[in-house]
Amino acid sequence: MAILAPTTLLAEQHYQTLVDRFGKWPVKIAELSRFRSPKEVKQALEGMADGTVDIVVGTHKLLSADIKYKRLGLLIIDEEHRFGVRHKEAIKAMRAEVDVLTLTATPIPRTLGMALEGLRDLSVIATAPQRRLAIKTFVRSEGNSVIREAVLRELKRGGQVYFLHNEVETIAARRDRLVELLPEARIAIAHGQMPERELESVMRDFVAQRHNLLLCSTIIETGIDVPTANTIVMSRADKFGLAQLHQLRGRVGRSHHQAYAYLLVPDTETLTKQAQLRLDAIQSMEELGSGFYLAMHDLEIRGAGEVLGEHQSGNMMEVGFQLYNDMLGEAVSALKAGREPDLLSPTGVFGGATEINLHAPALLPDSYCGDVHVRLNLYKRLATVSKAEQLDGLLEEITDRFGKLPAQGQTLFDTHRLRVLAKPYGVAKIDAGPKLMNIVFRPNPPIDPMRIIELVQKNKAIKLAGNDKLRIDRAIDEPAGRAHLVRDVLRSLGTPVPRDTKESRP
């Protein structure tokens, strides 16, 4: 098993946790990070190659092409949003024989989009630990008074503070200003360019409360769990992404104490539109377990990008978001069912909507349902129904809410019942007029041609009008009667056969 972590600090934390948990078991655990000596790293690599290492914890080095795994069965990726597209491609190369479990509080738009589209399984843990409080979040223009008030409030109750300054070149100058502004604070600096032993020493001293203000870069984004640190001040918060803001805010509030997050920007009035959207979203979603909903906002702000490949944007807008999702959903369903997706006709028999015309009004009248937004929602739900049982449930709900359906509403439901029934038969269009009805099939419909011949021979009113059309010469005034007749005709064709059965094609 391999555990992939984005930072050395997080890898070290996982390693120590595993050693504490399995140290007495006959399990060999190794770590690949800056905190290990060259000798220890060499031993770990040899153990992975010969299969003597059971669990390895490491950073991006685990994805290197020169690392050999003899019996890797499970790859766990912590903080998956911290890994780029090329890393994901390297992970995909393992997936043929390796199970992959990804963990993140804020899935990136690509990952979340794939989960919502059914390409990946998704499980949400929404229950917060006991006694955990939501973090109070404030967006403020940066100033000495705001910083001093935020820091002193925490120090006076015996807590510790993170001060995030994500520019290593100027972090020393920031320290000098903070020393002058906050003589009460014991300040330490931590960033990724420090020697690993010095960084490790600083973090251990902070955990032991020898320092009460840690001036740091985003190296603290993952792997830091200090229960006594319950205030974080982020300078230039407008430069961070939504997921990053949520992760950084999550470094505080790790105990039962009330935690505070101050997002400082140069001027709240001059923010870019996207920065304003991100800060509004993070400020409005303070409740515990809001990471998933923040990721949904991120998906809306940035878009989902391409599902496959390294590009961050695809051709979704060429066909429209809804049609794109329909096509992708059909391809996923086909692959899961063991079928080859029809790439030449992605909206064909199994994906395309059947056009139904009963030559009668099919709608929910204003007098029946007065709210236009409710009607639009009901129309959308009807259009996405794929099973007769779903239609029955929706009919029961609408009748319960608004009363008995009028004639136009009955015709609307008859239209959708026909659509649901006709789709598996490969029907492209049903035109049912008062005197003449036509059923038009797509090429190669999944129907036994002998059933069509038997139907035409037994019923003089039904005739073949070309290779792909059935014509019914029957005069029926009521649209419900016409819908009922078409349903009977389709059912008489028997059960649709799979498309890949060659004998089924006429």
Give a quick summary of the entry:
This protein is α/β, with parallel strands linked by helices. The chain has 17 helices and 16 strands.
Could you describe the 3D structure shown?
This protein has 506 residues and is an alpha/beta fold. It has three domains: 2-103, Rossmann fold (3-Layer(aba) Sandwich); 136-288, Rossmann fold; 355-504, Aspartate Aminotransferase, domain 1, CATH 3.90.1150.50. Helix content is 40%, strand content 15%. Strands 6-11-10-7-9-8 form a six-stranded parallel sheet, sandwiched between helices. Helix 4 crosses helix 10 and helix 15 (407-422) packs parallel to helix 17. The two termini are 53 Å apart.
Can you give keywords for this protein?
single chain; 16 strands; Aspartate Aminotransferase, domain 1; Rossmann fold; alpha/beta; five-stranded parallel β-sheet; six-stranded parallel β-sheet; 3 domains
Q: Mind telling me the CATH class of the largest domain? A: Alpha Beta
CATH superfamily of the largest domain: P-loop containing nucleotide triphosphate hydrolases
Task: Give the CATH topology of the largest domain.
Answer: Rossmann fold
Q: Strand count, sense and closure of the main sheet?
A: 6 strands, parallel
What is the 3D form? elongated
How many discrete domains?
3
CATH architecture of the largest domain: 3-Layer(aba) Sandwich
Point out poorly predicted stretches. 500-506
Q: From the helix content, strand content and strand pairing, which structural class follows?
A: alpha/beta
Oligomer: single chain
Strand order of the largest sheet: 6-11-10-7-9-8
Number of strands: 16
Helix content: 25-40%
The number of helical runs is 17
Q: Could you give the distance between the termini?
A: 53 Å
Q: For the CA atoms, what is the radius of gyration? A: 31 Å
Strand content: 5-15%
Instruction: Write down the overall mean pLDDT.
Output: 85
